[in-house]
Design a protein that fits this description.
343 residues; single chain; 39% helix
């Protein structure tokens, strides 16, 4: 840790990862600047734990607007930048490919170019993604080929190639890609599958919802805890040289497994009947509580992700502490208790 008070700029500070990372950096004694979009709905909710912290400064701006990035950089003069802002919804990226490229690709370009002018010695963390592996079979590590299948995966890969690998080589920029596999928490956005399941089953258990629909139940993901993953982001920027790291648990589960684990946490039992679009999940009273709907299928699916985090373990000394079962319990308990209070 540097002797002078370290300063960090986080784009996407109001998201799941931004909120955990800002809390973590503040706990390490950092002064943190967070870029906040004016359009965000109640953007400051997730930051409530840090509200009033004199070391947290919020600046309005976004990745579409270089002038706002320049202003944030001038104001914060950060030693470290964490670029977490993104159009991060894979399904939406098929519907809004231009918007996705605008933010996830050109946005990083604007940020690094402004950073090189204003804070040339800065260290940058880029939120890359396992979605870049696409069709490459698991386990995936830093040497695995990238074969993205979504506009989101494409935009993130192009950003990685041009502005991380490219700028590191051409301009000597200290920039790292964290190739993060899915990471969840009670703060996860409600349209991602894990949170959708924990909220829906908690509502069914409380008797305020009858059923819900999902897409591909057999997709497999390597799900870890977001709170663990932000430590890896920070560690990457403390190394002598910039590099790219896979951050994952190394364990994979299907969407169906996730449903069953949430049900277990709520002391519910689910029996599956039928196949494909006709498959249903039935509770112990014989009620159909889960159906499958084509509209939640992706035009192109990444069938299976399982990361090999050996490099992060060896070089960063990083490991995840929260295992799958604990993560599911944490999310389910949080949603169940929160919803119970609203009844
Ligand atoms: N969202 C959603 N809703 N996904 C569903 C549903 C549903 O009703 N039913 C099945 N799925 C499947 C998706 O098809 C996918 O295979 C899996 O559940 C996980 O979907 P998401 O939770 O939306 O996450 P993701 O894997 O597409 O993307 C997340 O992880 C990436 C890292 O690999 C996002 O956080 C990305 O931003 C991130 O980069």
């Amino acid at each position: 840790m540097r002797k002078k008070k370290a300063r960090a700029l986080i784009t996407g500070i109001t998201g799941q990862d931004g909120s955990y990372l800002s809390e973590y950096l503040l706990s390490l004694g950092y002064e943190v600047w967070g870029l906040v979009r004016r359009t965000s709905l109640d953007p400051l909710m997730r930051l409530s734990k840090s509200t009033g912290n004199k070391n947290l400064h919020l600046v309005y701006g976004n990745l579409r607007d270089s002038a706002t990035l320049a202003r944030a950089l001038e104001e914060g003069k950060p030693h470290e930048i964490y670029n977490l802002a993104a159009q991060s919804d894979v399904a939406i990226s098929f519907k809004c490919p231009e918007e996705t490229f605008e933010v996830d690709y050109f946005g990083l370009g604007r940020l690094v170019n402004e950073a090189m002018k204003i804070v040339p010695k800065v260290r940058i963390y880029q939120a890359s993604t396992s979605e870049m592996f696409g069709r490459t079979p698991p386990p995936q590590n830093e040497r695995s080929p990238f074969r993205p299948v979504s506009p989101y995966g494409e935009a993130k890969l192009k950003a990685h190639e041009d502005f991380v690998v490219g700028y590191r080589k051409r301009h000597g920029l200290f920039i790292c890609s964290g190739i993060l596999f899915n990471h969840e928490s009670p703060r996860r956005g409600e349209h991602f599958v894990t949170r959708k399941i924990s909220i829906s089953l908690a509502k069914i258990k409380l008797g305020v919802q009858k059923s819900f629909a999902l897409g591909n139940l057999d997709a497999k993901r390597d799900w870890g805890f977001a709170g663990d993953y932000v430590r890896a982001m920070h560690l990457m920027l403390q190394q002598k040289k910039p590099d790219d790291y896979v951050v994952a648990t190394g364990v994979t589960h299907s969407v169906r497994d996730f449903v069953e684990e949430v049900a277990r946490a709520l002391e519910m039992k689910i029996t599956w009947k039928g196949e494909g679009l006709k498959e249903v999940g039935i509770d112990s009273y014989g009620n159909t509580i889960i159906t499958v709907d084509k509209k939640f299928y992706r035009p192109h699916e990444v069938n299976a992700l399982r990361g090999d985090p050996s490099k992060a373990r060896k070089k960063l000394g990083w490991k995840p502490y929260v295992a799958f079962e604990e993560l599911v319990q944490m999310m389910t308990r949080a949603d169940y208790e929160r919803l119970k209070k609203t009844l």
